């Protein structure tokens, strides 16, 4: 989401013991995360926070956070290197607004020790850990050595930076054996990570990981370690103050992933028993104390089928999925971060931290889930409606109807959170929230999210980081419709089509032409659904439509307010929520459409088109070159992830239609082969 930051004034604090007359007057939040919109929305009224200033780049000026703020400062154009990674511009904005503290959110400079150091040099409080902890935990190589010294379980691997040389690659792999994980020493969020199962994949993994790491974090150093196949990804939330006190706030299960990035998270985990939970929490606190950590942080672990757990990394910032921890503990983590930054002690002891209920978070992305579980999608939100009216549902977002989703940033639209007294209750609320979420204008991953949370394996808690490829080995194909589902869907589409026709014939509730013939009561329609054609007969009486589908009658009734994004319809007496694409034609239009020429499928073996919008970061061929099957032709970077485009056959390059640095759209022609 295009969420920038905020400057918050704390003039007087009332009701918070220990914070009265605090010295922090301005808190500047300068980056693009829903956390900052949360700060703007809540503003901690009991503390007297009321003045806000958003620091944004040019392309996101119309966004929600800017409208909520009292003032806004532009920090540069859309490319991150010229805005949200431009420390000079951000420091100028902080000086201009007179900010006395900065909340960095997550991403960009949130774990950058140089940024924290520059703030300290200016006398500005960084709402997060100090530079020592950021450096120690931000470097995966150093953090692993510190974890070992703190008696934290670690993954077997090569302790040090692996250079981009074949000798080093082979030496490390020979010691560890395949598969191995190659990942960036700096940063996180799944960027700069590759799994390699062979020498060729190792070489390719090193190249792409180093390029992604340099692009996302400005640091191309890599490390290599043994890949634990089929694990769970479970993390522990920690909270520590500047007085040596530290707590673990239970765990979050983050095993549902694609491309090493989380998709669905929940708290607590269905897998951990109390003893394992405590052991993981105590090791997480031990690591935090080893680096004198002070703020909210997350220690991530991989957990195998026997509940053995291994340190993965520590994120020295607030996590995207922190709301589910807030739900089950009742703690406001942003508020706690501000208190700690001011120098106050933790208000709670370990025995005070509860597990109340169950919370699930779905990351709603502007992605096409039918392409590799989610290739980025861009565009303008022509229709957008969040399910915030539902009980137990929270939506953290920074967009609204009319917002643009661009190629420059992460494709996340929102964080959708459902909270219930039990896991079953939370799952039911999440299902309803996804069904009632309306997004038009960009392709989104809600169909995939919904299928995940209702899948029997997920409901049973039988998950791992390989869940998606195991459940959908041929890729995600959408919701499989039963015969009954198909009839109900076709009937609903037919009824809506006729309801829209009847509405267009009326003006202020009356027929547009007074002498018009008596209103029709029966229709015949042709509907196309998933490449199948169906003939339907529809009749209408007193607000109810009776639709005959495949010899069976389906009754559709309800409030026909076609201006609403969601209609509360009843199908055969049951309420349903349906979001599908169905083509509806009159019998005449269907008969004429048979004469329309069909577009012949393209010979994709001879051409290469971009599967997503993005930027060309490398072209490896020129006209006249001969390429082999699977050979890399070019590399497309979309939303900070690099994707290698390869040849589908052995042939000579006929023409090249792109060059390094160009922006391309989905379907744009890149290269032609003879």
UniProtKB/TrEMBL annotation:
Protein's GO biological process: lipid catabolic process
Residue runs in coiled coils: none
Pfam families for the chain: Biotin_carb_C, Biotin_carb_N, Biotin_lipoyl, CPSase_L_D2, PCC_BT
All residue ranges annotated as the Lipoyl-binding domain in the record: 595-674
Ranges of residues in domain Biotin carboxylation: 23-473
SMART domains, per the entry: Biotin_carb_C
Record has 4Fe-4S as a keyword: no
One term of GO molecular function: metal ion binding
Cross-referenced SUPFAM superfamilies: Glutathione synthetase ATP-binding domain-like, PreATP-grasp domain, Rudiment single hybrid motif, Single hybrid motif
Catalytic activity: propanoyl-CoA + hydrogencarbonate + ATP = (S)-methylmalonyl-CoA + ADP + phosphate + H(+); butanoyl-CoA + hydrogencarbonate + ATP = (2S)-ethylmalonyl-CoA + ADP + phosphate + H(+)
Gene Ontology CC terms, in alphabetical order: mitochondrial matrix
Subcellular location as annotated: Mitochondrion matrix
Requisite cofactors: biotin
UniProt pathway annotation: Metabolic intermediate metabolism; propanoyl-CoA degradation; succinyl-CoA from propanoyl-CoA: step 1/3
Entry EC no(s): 6.4.1.3
Residue span, ATP-grasp domain: 147-342
Alphabetical list of CDD domains matching this protein: biotinyl_domain (cd06850)
Entry keyword set: ATP-binding, Biotin, Ligase, Lipid degradation, Lipid metabolism, Magnesium, Manganese, Metal-binding, Mitochondrion, Nucleotide-binding, Transit peptide
UniProt superkingdom: Eukaryota
Stated name of the protein: Propionyl-CoA carboxylase alpha chain, mitochondrial
Species this protein is from: Electrophorus electricus (Electric eel)
